[in-house]
């Protein structure tokens, strides 16, 4: 990464909130107080992140520590100013397991939530074993239990839906079933012109557009 330190606008808008949602999921703050990195299997995700923050840094590929094939995309940049801003709203260099909450204006919480969903969220469709009716599940994963509980309360305050928390091997999952999934999806995808990961949008679109 270069030695220059970029200035990134931190005037709140939907794109900034979306980018912070993405970074909360798959971003990394270096311990040096300046450098940042965002990774994803989806190149589109990296392109969205770069566009939202008005970056011109090159998108490269990398392999995970125990792999040889470079199948992950990433963008790296240096910005002391943006690094400090992220710290001021709750992120840190060890955020995976220590994250408590992210200070997002309520007006832009749907955009933050959509970024979080595009990064660490999942939308599942399956058939109930007895009724044979389609079942929907929308979920968010995190290795930080306090963050999952904060997220649950924020969504409850915004939409009046509770969801439930399930445990996986390393993460906890905040899960919403059929009716609550539809409310949540309509909340996140409030306009046809918003920025989002197209493969998740297309998978969910036939369902939430019915409400």
TrEMBL record:
It comes from the Bacteria. Residues 19-164 form the DOD-type homing endonuclease domain. One of its GO terms (molecular function) is endonuclease activity. PROSITE patterns: INTEIN_ENDONUCLEASE. This is DOD-type homing endonuclease domain-containing protein. It comes from Candidatus Nealsonbacteria bacterium CG18_big_fil_WC_8_21_14_2_50_37_10.
């Amino acid at each position: 990464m270069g030695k220059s330190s970029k200035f990134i606008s931190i005037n709140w808008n939907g794109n900034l909130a979306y980018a912070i949602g993405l970074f909360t999921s798959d971003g990394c703050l270096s311990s040096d107080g300046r450098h940042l990195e965002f990774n994803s299997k989806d190149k589109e995700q990296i392109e969205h992140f770069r566009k939202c923050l008005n970056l011109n840094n090159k998108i490269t590929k990398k392999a995970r520590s125990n792999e040889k094939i470079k199948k992950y995309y990433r963008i790296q940049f240096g910005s002391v100013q943006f690094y400090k801003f992220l710290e001021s709203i709750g992120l840190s260099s060890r955020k995976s397991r220590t994250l408590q909450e992210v200070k997002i204006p309520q007006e832009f919480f749907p955009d933050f939530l959509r970024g979080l969903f595009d990064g660490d969220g999942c939308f599942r469709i399956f058939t109930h074993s007895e009724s044979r009716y389609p079942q929907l599940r929308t979920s968010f994963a995190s290795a930080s239990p306090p963050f999952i509980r904060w997220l649950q309360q924020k969504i409850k305050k915004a939409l009046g839906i509770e969801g439930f928390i399930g445990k996986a091997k390393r993460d906890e999952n905040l899960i919403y079933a059929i009716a609550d999934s539809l409310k949540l999806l309509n909340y996140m995808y409030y306009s046809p012109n918003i920025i989002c990961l197209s493969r998740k949008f297309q998978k969910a679109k036939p369902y939430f557009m019915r409400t």
